[in-house]
Amino acid sequence: MRTPCVAGNWKMHNSVVDSIKLVKELLPGLDKVQSVDSIICPPFTALASVADVIKGSSIHLGAQNLYWVDQGAYTGEISPGMVAEIAEYVILGHSERRAYFYDSDEFVNKKILAALAVGLKPILCVGETLEENETGRTGEVVKRQLTAGLHDVTNQQLEKVIVAYEPVWAIGTGKAATPEGANQVIKEFIRDELVLIGSEELADSISILYGGSVKPDNAMEFFDQPDIDGALVGGASLKADAFIQITEAAG
Known about the structure:
The chain is 45% helix and 14% strand. It is an alpha/beta fold. The mean pLDDT is 96.
C-alpha cells in the first residue's frame, strides 16, 4: 500500500515573513490529515525559518533544487549537504529548471545521485511539452527523462525516490490533463518503466504524483485514479485553504 503524498512547490514566492505566516496557517489543517505525507518546499531563504515552525508536526520539508558538488567555488549554488542539514526532500528535474536553467537529463541524474548520497529523498519531475504531446512523443520523452534521471540509482536507493508527472503544458496554465489521461501516462510510461529499472515490487511501492493545475475542485478526480498517489502542487500551495483541501482529498 502506497502512502498518499501531496507536495507544495512554492517556487520563487514568499519572503521569510510570508513563509512563516503561510506555514502557521497550514499547520492545524495538515496535522489533522495523518494518512497523507504532506511536504512543503519554500524558497531557500525561508527553509530554516519554516523548519523551526514545523518542528514536531507531521509536515515534511523539501527544497526546490541543489547542485551536485559537495563544496567549492560555485557562487550562488547550494550543495546537497547544505540542503540535507535542513530539509528531507528535494525537487529535481522540474520543467522550469530544465527550460530556464538548462538542466539536462545528465545534470538531473547527477543531482539525484548527489541527493541520495546525503540521505535526501528526491522528487523527480518528468513531463512533456505541448508540442511533444501533440506529436505523440509523450511516452518517448517521459521514459527518457525517467531512465536518464535514475541512471545508476540502486534498487535500495530507488525506494527513497518519488516521481512526479508534470505535463509542461499544464503547469501554471489552468489547463490540467484529464485524470484518465494522466493515469495512463503514469501507468504505461512511468510505473511500467520502473519495473524495468528496478523490479515489479519496487515499481508498485513507489509513489507517483501528478502535477499541473491541481486545485481543490479537481484533486479528487486525480486521486481516484489507481496509479496516481498524490500531487505536486504549484499555485494552489500558496493558499492555505486550497492546499489543505487538496491534502484532505488525498486522504
